[in-house]
Design brief:
Helix content is about 30%, strand content about 30%. It contains 7 helices and 11 strands. The strands form 2 sheets. A 7-stranded mixed sheet has the order 7-6-5-8-9-11-10. The chain is globular, with a radius of gyration of 17 Å.
């Protein structure tokens, strides 16, 4: 697999204006763009940011409020360019084993080409549907991050109570489950809150919502928060 290192001069100019590194497409994403912005790698679709190194604010906001020092085994559903593994290693200094599930082979290719080789933690990338993976594995995890989108939408199968029950079965005792849900507009927030009350809390009774700048991160167990909300 080709591994690309970004030259320093491009990083410098990316603080002035975004620099397009590569664009491609796939069956699942008609447009995928790798940008260098503020010295960080971004993965963009036509309508959404799939990855942004340590400026992937939604999960950064969640991690900063959680007790995650004991996390060793991590499952990431939806890879992007690997912002979640990047944050855990580079900002939160965790030594972990990461299993990353991504249905789009082209995204795995781009992540491997530009981003994952910057990390030391072991990352096992699996090209698969997240639901099918959960049905087929017996592994358990300390941290599961749900970050699956089709542009700005979460596929409906990942919003079901059956999916949440599979997540529950894959969590270790005292594990953490974080679910990234769109909450950009007032309408988005209403939809997210309704899902939280009507579905999420039925599977996880001690759940909380962690508000971020753009989305809600749904947390299955509020006892893992540093300060209970």
């Amino acid at each position: 697999m080709e591994k690309i290192a970004i030259p320093s001069w491009k990083k410098y100019f990316s603080y002035i204006f975004p620099i397009k590194i590569e664009s491609s497409s796939s069956v699942y994403n008609p447009l995928l763009v790798v940008n260098l912005t503020k010295g960080r790698l971004q993965l963009l679709t036509e309508n959404a940011i799939y990855s942004y190194d340590d400026l992937y604010d939604n999960f950064d906001a969640a991690f900063s409020q959680l007790n995650i020092s004991d996390v060793k085994e991590v499952l990431v559903l939806g890879l992007g360019l690997g912002s979640i593994p990047y944050l855990l290693e580079k900002k939160y200094r965790l030594q972990t084993n990461i299993t990353a599930i991504e249905i789009d082979e082209e995204i795995i290719h781009l992540a491997s080409k530009y981003s994952l080789h910057r990390l030391n933690n072991h990352i096992d990338c699996v090209c698969a549907d997240a639901e099918i993976f959960l049905e087929s594995t017996d592994e358990k995890f300390d941290l599961i991050c749900m970050d699956v989108f089709e542009d700005e939408s979460i596929p409906s199968q990942f919003l079901s109570s059956d999916f949440l029950e599979m997540i529950r079965e894959r969590l270790n005792p005292n594990g953490i489950f974080l679910f990234n849900h769109l909450a950009t507009t007032g309408a988005d927030k209403d939809i997210a809150k309704k899902y939280f009350v009507d579905v999420f809390t039925k599977s996880f009774r001690n759940a909380s919502i962690i508000p971020t700048n753009h989305n809600f991160i749904l947390l299955q167990d509020s006892s893992r928060l540093k300060v209970l909300i």
